[in-house]
Amino acid sequence: MANTKALRVRIKSVKSTEQLTKAMGLVASSKIRRANINMYKSREYLASLEKSISLLTSSQDAQKSPYMQKRDTSRTKIVIIAGDRGLAGGYNANVFRLAKEYGGAEFIPIGKRACDFYGKEINSSEKYSFDEAMTLSRELCREFCEGSFDRLGIIYTTYHSVMSQEAKIKWILPLSRREESSDNAGMIYEPDHETVLNLVAAEYVAGVITSLVRESFACEVSARRMAMDSAGKNAKQMISDLSLQYNRARQGAITQEITEIVAGSGQ
Question: Is the domain covering 36-223 a CATH 2.60.40.420 domain?
Fold first, then answer.
């Protein structure tokens, strides 16, 4: 026969967990709208940067830029964007699983979980600013031009919907030549395409980093809300099952007591 005291303790514990998951789900829900607004704005900004870079890299003059020199890919740096907290389903695990495919790379973490994982100085993906991205971008661009590494990528999570996110990698350096664009016709760059490309490359890299951090954070809060909703449903079902067991155990204990009293009175 089940111990009614143990069942009561377990029900109380599960109810506390349910309250915690409900609170975390509400916090995630409150952040989703703002996170999505920031993500869509960053996407628009990145699209404009991509268009400008496309116009520059389609020029023959820009091929002399150090940012467009193809090299051996043995020395790789990857910016890896993870969350600040756990309890977000497979969000962080998917990022780290993808990172394992590039085991020989040097990782630059953004987000508290990534910083903890790689033992680097803690920063926040939720509060990561463009100024921080620009500082990192200038350093990376300088090292790339000096030949310290051969290619730069970013592991992030792309947002499909509240229920669907996917870990991906985006390669940003060296820049690839784009097809000659009709938008470039009649456009004059002073003093030349190469100089302009060298000047805007750092802002482009910073823009990519900022945009993908915003998108990853939107994925994190969406994944956390779904995970907390699922955990809350599981907790409710567990409480229902435990309550049924408790009621049966209590009824069994009462029946046994009555039986013992009746048996004792008949002696």
Answer: no
